[in-house]
Amino acid sequence: MRSSWVVLGLMALAVGSAEAQQARTILFIGNSFTFGSGSAVHYWRANTVTDLNDEGTGGVPALFKSFADQTGLEYDVYLETRGGSAFDFHIREKLPEITSQAWDVVVARSYSTMDSENPNDPTALIATGRELSDVLHRRSPSVEFYVTATWSRPDLTYVEGTPWYGESIDQMGSDVDAGYDRLASEVEGVKAVNPVGEAFNRAMRTGVADPNPYDMIDLWTFDHYHASTHGYYLEALVVFGNVTGVDPMALGGRECSGLELGMSRGQAQALQQVAHDELVAAGVSLRMSAVALSGGNACA
Questions:
Q1: Do the Cβ atoms of 196 and 238 come closer than 8 Å?
Q2: pTM (two decimals)
């Protein structure tokens, strides 16, 4: 009889252990700023994530997956992206995909100017963000829903006649961040904002990046609209730190994704520092990873 209880106890422990090791699911909903248009990130390591649109995309989600693997975190990463899209597109056209299962985490971004018809007006952003939050929480009541505030666009700042012409390069990023902050404060179910635009601003302010890509391309790719590989790397660092609570600086000089994408260790560490500083400034509590990086196990 006693041996039966021992067997049952061991079985219960085994089940509990399996549950503890079960990977969390995370879905990225977004557009070209999520899939990494214009950079080496776009199709990078697409085999490590699940593209619900079956378009072979790796993008920022693949970078997130790499960071998680390197720090010992179990995540199954999914994405649903469409270039030029806002929240309403995914609700209207991709509802079966974004509600295909109950997600643990969702990270979503809307159009870069908040509203393609009325740049810098957060009204539509907030309304459609509320609708998306409701859709996600009906399917996944306990989902952690993050929204990503994007960067300033030089093509809308330095070019005469564009919405932010005459403003400093960091103004659009701050305006968009303010719009997403309103969304997070006014819409129930939004856990936090990923302050990617403000991280870009910090990189420029601290001299890590050049504020004028017409001078020298840095955070932006050739169209001065989408990010460069360095810019998407910074985006992924901010999202990773905000969602997991792991300090981006834990990745350190041995982080392998940046090296694989053509960055020096010094560049990767400088961007990790920027992401760390921006998240701390935003009030995020960060911890170091318990897993020491081996310098290539996630990118081998």
A1: yes
A2: 0.87
